[in-house]
Structures are given as C-alpha cells and as structure tokens.
Records
---
Amino acid sequence: MSQHRAVAVAFILLLTACGRVPLGSVPTPSSAASPTVGISPVSQESPTDAGSPSSTPTASPRTLPKTTPSSTRPSPSSSPTYAPLVASPPSFHAGEVRIAYADITFGATGGKSPYSWSLSGGALPNGLALSAGGTVSGTPTLAGTFSFTALVTDARGVTASAPGSINVANYLTGNGICTKGCSVENLCVAVCGTYAKPVGGVAPFTYKPSAPPPSTTFGWPALAGQFTSVGTYSFSVTVTDSLRASTYVSAIFNVFPHISLKYGAPPGGAVKVQYTYTAFYSGGSGVPTVSIPKGSLPPGLRPSVDATRGTVVISGIPTTPGSYSFYLRITDSSACSTSGNCYFQTSLLTIDIK
C-alpha cells in the first residue's frame, strides 16, 4: 500500500510541476489509506470524478494569458489629395510683324498632371497659336495689342485660367524723306535735320551711320546740331532693332545761305517831306516779312518788302520831329529753330526827323 501511495504522490508532484495541480492539494500521510486523486484537465476538458467530491482534491486550471496581435489590419486606401490647380502667365515680350515670335510658355502648378491648354477668351495676335502644352509661338502678321485668356485643364478635368497680352509692332521701316534732297537754310538748329519718318520696330535700336554734314551730329530720325556750311551733303544709316529687323535710309541735304540784309545808317528827314530808306536782302527762302521787333519808326513812316528788287524799304512822310531808334528784322519762310523761322536782324538804327 505504501508503494501505491508513493506512486500517487509522485504523480501529483509531476502534475503540479506541469501547472495542473497546486501543491496544497497533495494528501498528507494522515489521509485515508486509499486516496482518490481528482485530476482537472486543461481548460475546456470535462473532468471525471474518481471519488467523493468532499474528499477528492481538485487542481484549479491555470489561466493562460491571452495575446493580442501586434499588427492591425490596414484600413482601406483613401483618395489622394491634390494641391489647388494654379495657372501662371509668363512675361510676354513684344512682337514684330514678319519676325518669328520667340516661344513662351504658360506655367501650371498643383492639380493632377498631365495638363492641357486652350484659349478660352480674347484673341492671340494673327499668326500666333497656343499649343496644348501651353506654348505661344508663330510669326505675327498684324500689328496691334492683343489680350486673351488661356485655360489649363488637368487630368481630373479641373480648370484654371491666366490672362495674357502681347504688343505687336509693325516691321521696322525707315521711310526716308530726304532721299532726293532736303533744302536746309544755313545756321538752322535742330528742326532742320529730320530725314526719316520711321514706323515700327522694337527698342532698343542700334545704328551704323556714315559721316553727317559738318557741325551736325547723328541722331535718329533727325540730325542734331547746327548747319554751318553752305553746300550739298549726303549720308546714310542702317538701323537695327532688338528683334533684328533692320532698315537702310539715305539722305541728301542742300544747305543754302541764311537770309541776310545789306544795310547802312539811315539818313535824316524832315517833317512833311517824303522820306525813303532802302536796304537789300539775300539768301533765305520765299519772300521775307519785315518787322520792328524793338523801338519805333518816326510817325508817318512804315517798312515794306519789294520782292522784285529784293529790297526792304522804309518810306513815308514824317509828321513829328525827333530822334527815333529801332531794330529792323526780316524773316523768311524756312524754319530755323524750335522758336520760329530763320530771320536776320539789324543792329540798332536811328532816324532823326527835324
């Protein structure tokens, strides 16, 4: 019997080591001679009673820890978020008729590429077109200012727009006005040197002139300075604009003598006696006019021009004695400066009337 008890105790100890029976359930030597051992199965097993419940020790099942998976199941993917679609206009440069327009491209950011461009308003210059890639190109055929709106559409159908404006100049043309000769009065300043009436072109311009007439300096479209030598002078210039359009202009200037007056000191006169003073003019253009810009003539006298004889005459019958001082001026029909036509003015003259 003691041999059976020893076997039973060893078996219980083995179960305790495996987590089946607590050590407190091991029977003591004072227990009944034939103990019945109740073995509790692992969780979810049905135990079988071998003896009376009141005398049968039971082993409480150990609670095994539950483990939680370290990874979670991924959630369904959401739709991607896109930045707002924005269209950006480039800085359009000026164009010129007959000159290929340098390609320039609209910009777009955000949205979903690829992008597609089209014209949604206004009009491009004649001869230019907008590609699906947003590039403006072509060769202008008409001058003017053209405003338009470009529309960009992304892969989702979302749109954005950007404005544009292009100035197109006429092709650079010199339109020389002195190719067959321009008559210029000697001593003319500034206003006499115009030799062209240019049209079109895009600044800045570069120039390659030949030597201008003496005392003048080159300018476009007019010479600067003063003509100081009588004679015939010719020169030419090639003008090129920033878009490489060019024009050639030649000019001839026929410089004629400045108007002048040959005069002397006027004689004296007497009241109620016919008076005549004569001076001779030359040079200039057309029939000059005569005036007294400062001072005064004796009462009863007046100046006049005799174009047939080329003279300036002061004549009449004096009515009041005295000494009268004045300046005599003759003015022709040619412009000589920004202030007026060419003229000649005498020094101070005096007529004494007794």
---
Amino acid sequence: MHLQKLVTLIEANADELAGMMVRKVRESPRMGAYHRFGDDELGGRARLVYANLGKWLEDGSEGQVEEEYFKVGKQRHDERIPLSQLIWALFLTRRTLWQFVERQGWGTIEELQRNLEIELLVVRFFDRAILHAATGYESAGTGPQTSRHSEDSPFWPGG
C-alpha cells in the first residue's frame, strides 16, 4: 500500500480508530487519570492524531510536531495527568493505528516492504511526539505521580 493511500485510509477512518482508542483507554488500568474524561473528549483527542497523520508525516513537519505536542504535554500536566499516562496514551494511539493497518492485509511482498517503510515513518513521528509532549509537560513544573501496576494486568489492553 502506497504511503498516500495508507494515510488517506487512516484519515478517512479516524472516527473508527478513535472509537478503538477510547475502548482501549477504558480497558487499561494504566490510564486511570484519563478515565475521568468522557468518550467524546477522549475520542476527539485520538481523532486529532489520526485525522492529521498526513500532516505529521510530511518532510519538514518537525516544527509543527514540536509545537503541537509541546502544547499537549503542558495541557496534560495542567489536567494532572501523570507523565507516564501521557506517554502510555501515545503508545496506545500508535498501537491502535498499527492494529488497524495490519487488518488491511498485504497482497505482495512489495506491499509488505512498503508498509514496513511506512511503519518506520509513523514510529519516528510518535517518537518525536512523545519527546515533545514530555518536554512540554516538564516545562510546566512538578506534576502528578502515577502508581505502579501489578504484573498480572495486561501490558496492551484489547490485544
């Protein structure tokens, strides 16, 4: 699947992806601070990532990613979301995206190769988003702490 085709597919299915993300947040004991938000709020936050993926993956988008996710980090700090839960939310957003992409299937080895190249681009975007969100969070001062989770809770909610 070509990058633009995949991005278009993801952006067109941003609502479905956001719904998947909301379910995962609700299932995850590691996301307790997010449980106080309604489904519409959580879905809207996830939808913004998926609906704008093409913009975030463009060459030269580093400044935009830094600005946006620095603000996200500060906002989550102000909402008293522990940093670990902010990072976990971004991990879950990425994982949900790739579960969706994997369900689309690959017809040939060449498509698999292109999808792996696309996955690398997406991973790099989320790495930058996590870094800038954490930097924005830290710039806001001392934040809330999270508690440790038991070993028997699943690492990835919903698969």
---
Amino acid sequence: MATNTIQYIKTVRAVGLTVLALIIVISVKPFYILKERETAIITQFGEIIKTETKAGLHFKMPVLHQVHKYTAKLLRIDGDPQKILTKEKQFIKVNTTSRWRISDIRKFYQSLVTYESAYSRLSDIIDSSVRDIITVNSLANVVRSTNDINKNSHKEEFGINPESIHPENVPIANTDNPDGEALADAANGNPENSINAEAIVGTEKVSYPKIDKGRDALAAEILHKANNQLDDFGIEVIDIIFKEIKYSDELQVSVYNRMIKDRNQIAQAASYGKSPEFYSFWKSMEVYQSALPETEKILSTDMEYFKYLYKH
C-alpha cells in the first residue's frame, strides 16, 4: 500500500512539473508563426540579428529576441487634396493615390520601424513631388495624356444651310458694333474679318492646345522624383495615379463664363442662319442697351441706326 502511495505521488509530481514547464514555455513565447507574404526581423536589444521570409513556425530566444513582422504585399496611400499653381499661374485641385511596398526590410526598420512613420513620410514626399512637377507644367499637360483629340476634325453642326444665306438679304444695323460688322463680313464672303466664319455657315471647329508630355508622363516624373527620396527608407512607390483633377473655384467660374459665351455665340449663329431678321433685331437691341446710355451726341430718330427702335 505504501509503495502505491509513493508511486502516485511521483506521478502527480511529474505531471505537475510537466504542466509547469509548459506554462513557462508558453509564457515566454519561444516560437512565432510567419504567414505567407510576411517578412520578419529578429532583433536583440534593438540590433538586427536576422531576417526571416519563410512561412511557418519559427523559434526565437525567449526574452532576448524581439520579432517585428511586415507584409510583403502592395500597400496603398491616398494623397492629401492639394491646391496647386500650374505653369500658367492657374490654380487646380489635385488628388492622387499610390501603391507602395517595402523594398528593403533592414533599411525600413532602421529608419522608420512602424507603418505609421512610413505613411507620414510617404505622404510628405509624394505630395511635395506632385507640387514640384505640376508647378512647372501646363494645365493641358496635367489633364490630358495624348494629342489624339486633335487628329480628327471636330465640328459641331447647327443645321444651317449655307446656300440659304444671301448677302443682299442680311439686314444688320449700320452701327459701330464689331460683332455686327463681323457678321456682315461673314455673310458677304469675307470670313477673315468675321468673329466665327464657320459658325455662320453652320459649323464650329474645335481645337485644343498641343501637349508635349501629358498626364501619364507627369505621373512618371512624379514617381521618379519620389522614389529618389525614398530609397534610403527601404520603400518603393510602384505607381502614382491622379485620382481627381478639378479647377479651383476661381478658375471654374472663369471657364464656365467662357463656355457660356461660346455657346451663346454658336446659338446666335444658328439663329442668324434660320432668321436673319430676328437676329439683326436682337443684336441691335444689345447695341442700344450698351451704347445709348453713354452717348452724349444728339442723334436723329430717322437714322438707320434706330430702325428697330422707332419704326416698329
């Protein structure tokens, strides 16, 4: 009986010691797991001992060794929206997005350590590179990638039959209004003096400034400039994409006003082709409104100038 008791005590003690050893092993964490597409740096008192890229279970010295894990996947960073001045001194709003990766794990750990530091440094360098490149390039180069838009003849049809316009039937008021003279010149076969000869005969030719680089080339320049500054941090930017390019509020108003003016001119040309009499009346009303309040001369109401004001 005494022998069985002693054997039981020894068994319990062995199990207890085993459990205690397991608890100690688990608490000091001598193993770590590395997933696919992960890289680990093992440090001892802040000094890099080795790097590990193979997925699986790995051993480390308890207490002495620290494991720092980083992903080998591509990561994304969105730039801060910026208001940037172009070469023409026009403000535009630019927003970019980029993909990046850790290219040198040792440099990354020694210079940045954490992802938070990496994102902060990336944001500063990419945003400054975007500003530097856009500032010395034209607006057209920023928003377009090719000159294909000018390869074809872009015209807009108004449904005006040029054969229906006869110079002798063009009743335009005899004034000093440049628009009136230009329309008369166009109708009488002198398109070089007209404001838009093609609009008068039924079309508008659309042309755009040629570019020597383009948006894609500028993105490549920004990428090169940024990577030159990031090499010491063990970071590589894969690509930089313009996510959004917008006119500034001031430039947007100017562009809209110019578009409205152009469309009004086109509409007037179309109106002229369909009803020369009405178009002449409308233009004369505009001349009266702008010219009469400022004139100090005494004018006769029998003048051709007032044909629509007093004879209707």
---
Amino acid sequence: MSIFKKVLQHAQTSRVSAFHGIPFQFSAKLSSQINGIRQGTYYVVSGRPSSGKKSFTDLNFMFSVLWWYACTPEDMRPPLKILYFNMDKSEKVKAAKWICLYMSACFGKIIDINTIDGDYNKMYNIDSKTLQELEIAASFFDDMISKGVLEIYSGAKSPSRIHEYVERNMINYGGIHNEQDGEKRYELSPQYKHLQMIVVVDNASKLKLESQNKMAFADNDIHKKMHETMMHFKEFYNIAPVIIVPSFSVGGLFKKSQMTPDFREFGIYYEGCDVALHLFNPFKCDLNEYGEFQVKDFVTEPDNIPRLRFCTVMRNTEGLDSSTMPIVFHPESGFMFDCPLPSAPNYFQTIQHYKFFKQLQINEQQQSFNSEYTNANPEFGSTTIATNTGNEPTFQPINECAEQC
C-alpha cells in the first residue's frame, strides 16, 4: 500500500472512530492548538528557570491524562500506560507535588508541600475536610499505579537505561517481527491494538552519563543519544514520548530586547520533534509589560508571588504553531489554567480575584481549623498564633506542641 493510500485509510478510519487522541482536560486553548496527545507524536517542553515547564508537563501530559482515563467509561476508553521517569525530584517530593496538583485541580484548594508534609512554613493547618480530600488525592494515584496505568521510575537514568525500561514494557503489549526486506517492525497484540502509551522524561538536564567503548559521553553526545532514543520510541513503537529539556544557551538571548522564545533553546531536541512548547516567565526578566499584559497585575498580595506565564507553540507539525497562550500559574501546587486576554470582559475580574485569593483561602482554611480545634479542645479557647515570616503577618498554624509550650 502506498503512503498516499495509508493516509486516506487513516482518514476513513478516523471518520467512524470515537477516539482521536487524548484531550487536554484543563486547557481549552492548548486543545485548540494541538490535536491532543497522539501516538507517534514526539513532544518537547522547554523553558528558562522558574518558567513552570515541569508543572506544565505534569499537568497536561500526566495528570490530565489520568483524569481523562478515570472519567471515561471503561467500555469507551482504550488501554493506557504512562511511564514516568522522575529524575529531577525525590520520590517523596514528586508524590507530594502531585497531591497538591490534584487538590488544586479537583477541589480548588491552594496547598503546598510544606502544608502537607512539613513542620514549618505551613500555609495553614489542615482541617478534617481537607484531610479527607488529601486522602482522596493520594488514593487516586495509588489506584492508577495498582491498575498498572501509571509506572514511576525515580532517580537519574541514562538514555540506554530508559530505552531498556520502555522496551521491556512494550514487549508486554506486542512483539517484534522481521519483514521480508530484513527490517524489524513492532506490532501491538490484538487486545492492545488501541494502546495509548506515553513516556515522560523529567528532565534532560538530569540524564546520567554513559560511555561507549570505554569513552564517556560528552554533554552534547548524551543529549544526542537521548533525542535518538525518543525518536526511536516515536518511530519504532509508535508511542507518545514527552521530554522536558533545559533552555540551552543562545548568544544574546537574555537581553530585554530579545525576550521572544527562540527555537535554538531546545537544542538538538528541536530536530525531529512534532510539537515543541516553550514556557516563559516575564517576571524573571524584570519586564513590566509583555504583549498586551501588565505583568504587575498578576502578582498576588501580600506574598508577592508572580503568577503569569506564557506558553508558545514553537513547532506543531499537525496544526497551528507560532501562537502564544497566557497562563495563570499556581506554583504552590503546580496547577495552571487559561488566562483571559486584556480585551476580554472577565479580565479585570480575573486579575482582581488573583490579587488576594491565596490570602483569603489561607484565612478561610485557618478559621475552619481553629473552629474545629476549639470544639475538640475547649480548654484552649479560640486563640490563634500570629507570626512574622519575613513578609506580611499571616496566620500561623496551631499545633498542640505550640499550645503546650
């Protein structure tokens, strides 16, 4: 069959198929630019430090996919497997971050790792309702792991090691056949013919070096090897590889007059990828304006945390590219959502809400805990403890130790 006939066959199949790739559940704008997450499509996410590229990837290529899977009736969803290579954070920190992400996405609560698992610098103390929600969040990910939908590999890995893990998984779903021309071809087993396999690598800056013929790879060589590995996943196994890459240095790029994304920041990973997404944080560059936006409008008070980001589709072989989407970012939880344009009717309402939303929620959560704690411990009364954290005074979480002291 000629390549033209194959294209036509795919068009005919897609007319009657109910499945056209995994949609992005939390961004209508991203969904309008990219045709969801599709098998045989190679995705690269890049950005400078503090741009939110890791949170963006976790939200859209991990959590959004799991949420779609959980919400789709079993008889209407294809088999799904996500292999997540967590090379940047400890296993515990990554798990806590994902719980925070679930809390923000599903319950609308801003919560951070310290509030869940720390003894100091908590945003607020946790009441019984929030604790139940945290248990729901943790159970969600445990359930996905127990079902074999999500598999996490922590610690630095070399490209060859990542290849071994993926190859071992793919053998469970199909086999390799020798063609008449001598070429090898991978084919999924009939029961897994609609398998959606996503491989997420976080991130390329943490790759473990490897050697060849007793010669250690240089940095450029290790990135070349990783890129070739991701291309192999795409072309041989027809799966969806996703990789987070550092923003590679480009001469003069960090001058204020040159703050537009540059494809050279993706390094070698730009070559051969299907979708290249660039995250940008204008606050890191001391910009007062970016496009139509006033940057200061998105700084929350009193903590002075910047929440405006921009995602630019640098490359999209199957749709629109060179488009930029504004995003409101919750760095505490890693959640992101579409930001309206300044010309939109709800723009002013949005920026006013996000000026003070965090402090209002902290107050509400703390008051809920205080009330609950007082009812359970009437001998302590209704006292709250205020502390100066170095910024503005906020509510300090109450704990029994502090009260007894």
